[in-house]
Amino acid sequence: MAGRPWFLSAFAALGDPVSRAYYDKEIAQGKQHTQALLCLARRRAGVLFAMLRDGTFYEPRPATADGVQEEAPSPAGR
Q: In Å, how far are 1, 2, 17, 74 from 60, measured between CA atoms?
């Protein structure tokens, strides 16, 4: 039951172009829908925890052709 919020969050995020690109990349690698969605959920969890660690807000960046976001510069003074 603990993973359901992450799963639902990933499912809702499919409307976001960056999340959709990541999901599509996982599908292209041969994963099934549920597997790709779980990969997206884990990625979103990682982003959330990094935001909490760094004290930053989510700032979406466009996905590259391979569906991966560019790395954001770390905040000044951290």
A: 29, 26, 10, 15
Q: Which of 60, 68, 54 is nearest to 26 (CA)?
A: 68
**C-alpha–C-alpha distance, residues 71 and 8, integer Å:** 25
Angle at the Cα of 55 from the Cα atoms of 57 and 20, rounded to 5 degrees: 35
Query: What is the value of pTM for the model shown?
Result: 0.70
Give pLDDT tens digits for 18-73: 889 999 999 999 999 999 999 999 998 898 899 999 999 988 777 666 555 554 54
